[in-house]
Each structure stands twice: as C-alpha cells, then as structure tokens.
C-alpha cells in the first residue's frame, strides 16, 4: 500500500510538472524570479517531447507500482482521471512532436507578452 501511495504521489508530481511546463509562464507575471525555474523546465519538457525520451518520473512511478504489487495501471481514481493526461492512448512520436511545439509556442507567447508589458511599463511609468 505504501508503494502505491508513493506511486500516486509521483504521478501527481509528474502532472504538476507538466502543468508547470505548459503554463508556468503565467506565474512569472506575478513572481518574475520563477522564470529561472520555469524556463529550464519548459526546455526540458520540449526536449522530452521532441526526442521521445522518457521522463525520469515515469520509471520511478512504474517501479513503485510494481513494488506495491500492481501489475500495471489499474483503473483506480487517480489512474482513471490523471494517468490519461500524462500517458494518452495512442501516443505517437508525431503527437509528441506536436506537444513539444505547443509547449514552445505557449511559452513563447507568454514570455513575449511579459517582455512587451515590461517594455511598456519602462517607457510609460506610472506616476
């Protein structure tokens, strides 16, 4: 049971990381220093998608599940609702390439918007 709980926690961390990679630029609007964490995370996420590498969290989660006596991804609550977000059915290298492009485009848009906003604020400071 402990291994299963740990596997679920790893899966939740994996999901949080994926969400951070995709939308972490929005946090930079409020806390600019997060960019130092987010930019490398976004690059890592895009590299994983473009190369087809496996995120290190995946084997850790699978190892914990096997140690917990699970044969694989059973349809418990977490697996049913969260695993399909991380491991979609029919995932192909083309799909992963598209995911990588989405990560880059979304983040380029967010950081571009932040850059324009900062530039505008420098040119027209509030009085």
Short description:
This protein has helices spanning 2-23, 25-30, 35-51, 57-67, 77-86, 93-123. The chain is mainly α and 127 residues long.
Features:
127 residues, 6 helices
Account of the 3D structure:
The protein is mainly alpha-helical. 76% of the residues lie in helices and 0% in strands. It has 6 helices and no strands. Helix 1 (2-23) packs across helix 3 and helix 3 packs antiparallel against helix 6. The protein is elongated and about 60 Å long. The chain starts with a helix and ends with a helix. The model is unreliable at 74-78 (pLDDT under 50).
List the helices and strands and how they pair.
Layout: H1 2-23, H2 25-30, H3 35-51, H4 57-67, H5 77-86, H6 93-123
Helix pairs in contact: 1-3, 1-4, 1-5, 3-6
Helix content estimate: over 70%
Radius of gyration, whole Å: 18 Å
pLDDT < 50 runs, ≥5 residues: 74-78
Q: Main beta sheet, described?
A: none
H/E element sequence: HHHHHH
- Give the strand tally: 0
Q: What percent strand?
A: under 5%
**Inertia-based shape:** elongated
Give the N-to-C terminal Cα separation: 60 Å
Decide which structural class fits the backbone: mainly alpha
**pLDDT averaged residue by residue:** 80
